[in-house]
Amino acid sequence: MRVLVTGGSGRLGRSVVAVLADRGHEVTSVDLVDGPCPDGVRGVVADLLDDDARARVFAEARPEGVVHLAGIAVPFARPDLEILDINTRLAWAVLTDAVACGARCAVAASSPTVFGYNTPSWRPRYLPLDEEHPVAPWHAYGLSKLIIEETVRAVARTSGDCVVATVRPGYVIAPEEWEGAPTQQGHTVAERLANPELAAVSLFNYIDARDAGELFALILEHPERVANGQVFHAIAEDPLATRPLRELLPQFHPTTAGLAETLADSQAAFSSTAAFKALGWRARRQWRTELRENVQGGGGGAGS
Ligand SMILES: NC(=O)c1ccc[n+]([C@@H]2O[C@H](COP(=O)([O-])OP(=O)(O)OC[C@H]3O[C@@H](n4cnc5c(N)ncnc54)[C@H](O)[C@@H]3O)[C@@H](O)[C@H]2O)c1
């Protein structure tokens, strides 16, 4: 299938491009910045907010499937209005162009931050958080992601044969980050495990970038198994923590006390059952087997 990946030079995009190419798809990767492309992948540098440039990208790639990852990926990384403006305009432009050019499927990246954790009053209704749990974003990034999900649903209402969906990846760990490269927040995976305060801000969620790539690929390959407008979590089944979340969550998020007790020893605060039910997807890589560095009190160090 001809696939266009936006944001293909990014932390997640590089793995999504590699997974799609490995599965035999004809991939075009488009990004504001140049990045290394696997053999056979066409890399294009373009600003997707530029209407003419975007039209050229779609005309040349003629995508049958689109994975939309481009945007500002970190809360507070830019002024609020820029995050809202860039992320929401990009999603509308890319998804409507995907439908207009005749793609069979288009998938956009959202984020678990739509749930709105990290306010003193946030209290989940239940744990683990699944795709049905109510959302309540409070910062511009989380709100931009909820608007992207709403954009997907709006586009789905008139998209005809094109299935449009959303994936909420957990905290993305790229392959080199298991070897010690800094993660999105600047520290290493081992540091995130050794100091629970670091991962507490994302409720200890994570996902290997290749595992997330496999979910994007499965959605494009099997749109008939996806409800138009559907949301999927792409989050590991275990938490990025050396101790059970029923201990850690109430320590950092006091309003989860009681609810966290229902979580099993190695259970994450999120479930990705929608992707398993529709597509048989589950995260295959876990930090205990992937991490090359040792973590105080928690193992890791596979293969080292
Ligand atoms: N990394 C995570 O932990 C995480 C978690 C949940 C969701 N997400 C979402 O997944 C997506 C990818 O995240 P990432 O970590 O790879 O981010 P990233 O910043 O590494 O990659 C995003 C890419 O988008 C490109 N881009 C931005 N504006 C563009 C434009 N106008 N035209 C073309 N390209 C543009 C950037 O150059 C960048 O390479 C984002 O939408 C992000 O919000 C990421």
Automatic annotation (TrEMBL):
Entry-linked SUPFAM superfamilies: NAD(P)-binding Rossmann-fold domains
Organism from which the protein derives: Thermobifida fusca TM51
Domain NAD-dependent epimerase/dehydratase: from-to ranges: 3-232
Protein's UniProt name: UDP-glucose-4-epimerase
Entries under Pfam families matching the protein: Epimerase
